[in-house]
Design a protein that fits this description.
The chain is mainly α. Helix content is 61%, strand content 0%. The longest helix is centred in the first third of the chain and has 15 residues.
Length: 107
């Protein structure tokens, strides 16, 4: 799996406000991005259900006005995490946490 494709997929979905997350790879990048936006500190080696539980209170309390951020929250709230986990998910979480080019797709 190419991590940049996962990043682009999440960003395109937020920009277009269309579609849903399709797997844990997208979930991990999106969760990292959400944590970056909200200033949430998170360990990068976290299992899927623990990650969801960690961010759930912040997702429920989200009150931002940015349409892209709202759609990111909507996707995260509606996603049902899978048990699957591998090292690329850790990498994608890190990418989201370190994102510098919010909402920009690199082709």
């Amino acid at each position: 799996m190419i991590t940049s494709i996962t990043r682009q997929s999440v960003i395109i979905k937020c920009n277009m406000q269309a579609s849903v997350m399709l797997g844990n790879y997208e979930f991990y990048y999106a969760a990292g991005l959400f944590c970056r936006l909200r200033g949430i500190t998170i360990e990068e080696e976290i299992m899927p259900e623990a990650l969801r539980e960690k961010i759930l209170p912040e997702l429920k309390g989200f009150a931002g006005d940015d349409k892209k951020e709202k759609y990111l929250v909507k996707m995260l709230m509606n996603y049902k995490v899978l048990e699957d986990y591998d090292e690329q998910m850790k990498e994608l979480l890190h990418m989201g946490l370190q994102e510098e080019h919010l909402w920009q797709v690199n082709i």
